[in-house]
Specification:
Structural class: alpha+beta
Number of strands: 8
Strand order of the largest sheet: 1-2-3-4-5-6-8-7
Low-confidence stretches: none
Mean pLDDT: 95
Length: about 240
């Protein structure tokens, strides 16, 4: 028998379950996240479904028509029973004010035991590289940790460099790549995994809030400090 003592992981003191997001919208300064319903379908086709280039890294093929896209979204609604919540992202200002311009996903399968959630984003052009897009990640991340999840995951095709950079920008930590994880559209997919855990979230949350402040942007709406710089200054 070895003389080396057995080392065990830390005891988890918080044994309460995590909770599923409720029906309430998530309201920010730049966006509102509403539970997906059929009223959002026309806007989403205009701003997401009809842009074939946005579907390059999405697991499914782009729809060829409005009706095909509506069928696709109706299938998503069927999954919104227990584990998955899908939000329409609606802009609160600008020329597209009031329109749904993207989707946000909160998946929570392990609420009673491991309390793991997963965040997914499918943005139209109006949300990419914007304060509004960053606020979506902030609002949904805040909610999931408030609901007692202890781990928030982000996974993406390892070749999707834009998604990987977004994860790192938001504060997700790269954990590794699952090789030959999926087959998407007939092609191999290696999946890169990222996460934020509950002990890391307070700094990430504060960095989001400081970055989103009006004072962090000049008259041309250019950022003064990158969110990565703000987060690092808080450590």
């Amino acid at each position: 028998m070895s003389d080396n003592p057995l080392t065990l992981a830390a005891v988890v003191s918080n044994t309460n379950p995590a909770y599923r997001p409720g029906p309430e919208p998530l309201i920010g300064k730049h966006v509102i996240l509403e539970r997906l319903t059929q009223k959002h379908f026309p806007d989403l086709y205009e701003n997401v479904g009809s842009h074939a280039d946005l579907w390059t890294w999405w697991p499914d093929e782009p729809p060829s028509s409005t009706s095909e896209f509506d069928n696709y979204l109706n299938e998503l609604l069927k999954f919104m029973i227990d584990d998955l919540v899908v939000y329409a992202v609606i802009l609160l200002s600008g020329p597209n004010k009031g329109k749904a311009v993207g989707l946000a996903f909160a998946l929570s399968e392990d609420r009673l035991t491991n309390r793991v959630a997963e965040l997914g984003l499918f943005f139209g052009p109006q949300l990419k590289r914007t304060r509004a897009g960053t606020e979506v990640a902030y609002l949904l991340g805040s909610l999931l940790f408030e609901l007692n999840h202890r781990r928030l995951q982000w996974k993406t095709n390892s070749l999707n460099l834009q998604s990987r950079k977004a994860a790192e920008r938001y504060g997700f930590v790269y954990e590794g790549t699952f090789r030959q994880d999926q087959i998407n559209k007939g092609r191999n997919r290696d999946s890169s995994w990222y996460s934020i855990i509950d002990s890391e979230w307070p700094i990430c949350k504060t960095a989001f809030e400081k970055w989103l402040e009006d004072g962090n942007f000049d008259e041309q709406q250019r950022q003064r400090s990158r969110i990565e710089e703000i987060r690092e200054s808080l450590r």
